[in-house]
Write a structure and sequence with these properties.
Elements: H1 7-20, H2 25-28, H3 32-42, H4 47-60, H5 64-69, H6 72-79, H7 86-101, H8 110-113, H9 121-132, H10 141-150, H11 160-174, H12 184-197, H13 217-220, E1 237-247, E2 251-256, E3 267-268, E4 271-273, H14 278-287, E5 292-304, E6 308-319, E7 329-332, H15 333-339, H16 347-350
Parallel strand pairs: 1-6
Antiparallel strand pairs: 1-4, 2-3, 2-7, 5-6
């Protein structure tokens, strides 16, 4: 990042944070474990959306031992709706490592934290600073955005070398005489908070509420809408899929995905590549040795992953009760909702199963009248 005196930002930032910080469940009772869980959940997910997931997860798994010992299907169910399921798998691997090597306590040392599975520089910095008051930075997208704006730096923030440079500059400042007496926990959280609530993305910051409004070079030179500079992401691959809600009365057909690849190890509604006509959909059902009674076309839906976009069409199919167990698992809707982790990619069709998945589980959505009759 271009030369900028970080020390002049600190006092106004901390004064603003003291008056404006949000009340959040992971701030009310701070522990290394709770900081860790919240920071992993908050990656690419809004704070308000995370709150109920955090409460449910930490109520069931209140400490590192319980996380390390949790059965995988239950662990994935607790994570359902947050996406990026490898994150929670990595958390469990790290928890096992912490139990075996660190007597069940997350290390306070930044460099040691980096050796735990799934913990990068940002998460290590957040745990070390917020839970242990270590003077190390936690640089996420919010921090990069506010600092490039206040310094009017037009470097591409997607470059790993630039993120590393910002981390080193903040590390040097936080470990200098100028920072003595300041709280690393408050400082890092204040930076994140400013980016999350005031210096918003897409050129729409609330400058009048910003404690840096008189110091911000981008505001001074009217270049806020141009910052931060961010290289365009690679275009997503489009995949067309046909999704089936297959019912034999009260039971719904689901199946487990392979152990590797996209959505590995989760449960899903049966689906195939391509968009099938109604006749082709019926043929597919019959090829599964099932006897369809009626079929209903469902609304189209779309789900976006990091590098893939699913464009889906669906069919609800009522079948006669299977004579023998086939390749599908037939479960009661309520059992599916409670026990089987079904990714949010299928949320548009979950209501036709009579269940809620992901974030809809925390909303007042009635699915009882949407079943295929």
């Amino acid at each position: 990042m271009k030369e900028f005196d970080l020390s002049i930002l600190t006092e106004p930032l901390l004064e603003w944070y003291e008056k404006n910080k949000r009340t959040l469940p992971w701030r009310e009772c701070v522990s290394p474990y709770r900081v860790w869980v919240s920071e992993i959940m908050l990656q690419q997910t809004r704070v308000e959306a995370v709150k109920p997931f955090f409460e449910r997860f930490t109520n069931r798994l209140p400490d590192i031992r319980s996380l390390a010992e949790c059965p995988e299907d239950e662990l994935l169910k607790l994570w359902e709706g947050l996406g990026y399921y490898n994150r929670v798998r990595n958390m469990q691997k790290a928890a096992i490592q912490v139990m075996e090597e660190y007597e069940g306590m997350l290390p306070a040392d930044y460099e040691t934290l980096l050796h735990l599975k799934g913990i990068g520089s940002y998460t290590a910095g957040a745990i070390a600073s917020i839970a242990y008051e270590k003077p190390v930075p936690a640089v996420d997208g919010n921090v990069l955005r506010i600092l490039t704006r206040v310094a009017e730096d037009d470097t591409d923030i997607m470059k790993a070398s630039f993120r590393k440079q910002v981390e080193l500059q903040l590390m040097e400042y936080m470990q200098s005489e100028a920072f003595v007496g300041k709280s690393p926990a408050d400082y890092n959280q204040a930076l994140m908070e400013l980016g999350a609530t005031v210096c918003l993305p897409n050129g729409a910051p609330n400058c009048q509420e910003c404690p840096w409004r008189e110091l911000c070079q981008a505001r001074k030179n009217n270049s806020i809408s141009e910052l931060p500079v961010k290289a365009k992401a690679k275009q997503r691959r489009i995949e067309k899929r046909t999704v089936f809600v297959i019912r034999d009365g009260e039971r719904v057909a689901i199946r487990k995905r392979p152990k590797k690849g996209l959505l590995a190890g989760l449960y899903e509604l049966p689906n195939v590549e391509g968009h099938l006509s109604q006749e082709e959909a019926l043929l597919y059902v019959k090829e599964q040795s099932l006897s369809p009674i009626r079929i209903q076309k469902l609304p189209e839906a779309k789900h976006i992953f990091s590098h893939v976009e699913w464009q889906m069409q669906g069919y609800a199919v009522l079948i006669e009760e299977p004579e023998q167990i086939q390749s599908f698992l037939y479960v009661e809707a309520v059992t599916s909702e409670q026990l089987y982790a079904i990714p949010a990619a299928f949320a548009a069709y979950a209501k036709f199963m009579g269940i809620k998945i992901g974030q809809e589980r925390f909303l007042d959505v009635d699915t009882s009248e949407i079943l295929l009759r």
